[in-house]
Amino acid sequence: MNEREVLLKRVQVCDFALNDTALYLNTHPDDQNALAFYKKYSAMRADAAKAFVDKYGPLTHMDHDGGDTWKWVDGPWPWQQQEEV
Amino acid sequence: MEYKRQETYQKTTMDGGWKRVTPSAPAPRKDRMVQKEKTVQAEQTAQVERSAQVEQMAQVERSAQAEQMAQVEQTVQAEQTAQVERSARMERPVQKTQPVHMMQMETVVPQLNHTYSSGSMSTQPMPLSMPRPTMDVHPSFAELPYPSVEAMQYLDRESVRIKVNPPVISPLPPVEIEPPIYTFPIQDETECGYCITPAMSYTPMQKWGEVYDPDKGFSRGTIFPELDLPFVGEEARK
Q1: Is B223 left (phi over 0), alpha (psi -120 to 50) or beta?
Q2: How many domains does chain B have?
Q3: pLDDT for residue B43
Q4: CA dist., res. A72 & res. A69, Å (int)
Q5: Domain that holds residue B46
Q6: Which residue on chain B is closest to A32 by alpha carbon?
């Protein structure tokens, strides 16, 4: 597993944990433990996403850095992941 | 005549016991006569009113029936004339003096499925646009310009629906059909499904406890150990 994969996996894992916690919070909006967990992994996800975007380009088109080039089309498409890795 | 004091008993509903009821003495004879005359007069006026009402109702009904009959006759006549026209249109012989496009429309369009490759059609000059046929066209095509015969060769058969000679529906008297009585051959009433006693379910609220490490949760499909209940299928029996 190369660095790109590691960073991407970290984002995916954080996303999944956040999603599951969000489902819990829908029915328990005042659960402080769940809110703390969400906050922790939300920050972790932001860090992981930033690390990935800085090194390997945007995760979504909304990660556009405001530069002169539109980098969204430069990265591999999902069906090209296995070939390039 | 001497009024005989009557004593009747009524059953009271409050305590289930009996209560003695003494009716008040009747009014004097003169007053009674006056009251009787009044009631007779009232009855007579009521009867007159009733008969007038009945007559009015009968008249209204008669006029409504006559109107309905006239309407039915009109529709039947219209249908008959329409049918005659239709049959005349369909059976009209193809004359050589008729313009070519009229001939094609009236004779060929009802038989769309076996025409356009025939030699007789191809020898005749094809007009580029055709007038709309006089028969009923599916409403979705009613507003479209009718395609030429040339173009229709390439059209899907199903895309051009032409209704020829719709059946004439004559007004029939309504037939009363008795609804069938369904019987269920079920002996035990607990088998039938709707006699089962309704159940109540209780699902406890989830509580925040230990959660998986996010890596493990990612692979297990949930971060909550209490919800990590994989479907094992046949393995459950072993």
Answers
A1: alpha
A2: 2
A3: 92
A4: 9
A5: 27-91
A6: B208
- Amino acid at site B140: S
**Alpha-carbon distance B223 to nearest alpha carbon in chain A (angstroms):** 7
- CA distances B88 to A61, B83, B106, Å, are 70, 8, 12
Q: So what's the pLDDT on residue B3?
A: 53
How would you write B17-71 as a 3-class SS string?
CEEEECCCCCCCHHHHHHHHHHHHHHHHHHHHHHHHHHHHHHHHHHHHHHHHHHH
Specify whether B112 is located in the same domain as B62: no
From the CA of B143, how many Å to the nearest CA of chain A?
46
**Higher local confidence (pLDDT), B151 or B187:** B151
Q: Touching check for B217 and chain A: CB below 8 Å?
A: yes
Q: Is residue B192 a part of any domain in this protein?
A: no
Tell me the pLDDT tens digit for each residue of B169-198: 777 777 777 776 666 555 555 555 555 556
In this predicted structure, the answer to whether residue B23 has a pLDDT above a threshold of 70 is: no
A5 touches chain B (CB under 8 A): no
Query: What pLDDT score does B110 carry?
Result: 43
* Predicted pLDDT at B200: 80
Residue in this structure with the two tokens 């479209």, named with its chain if needed: B144
- Residue B219 in domain: no
B194, B196, B197, B202 alpha-carbon torsion, rounded to 10°: -100
Residues spanned by the domain of A11: 3-84
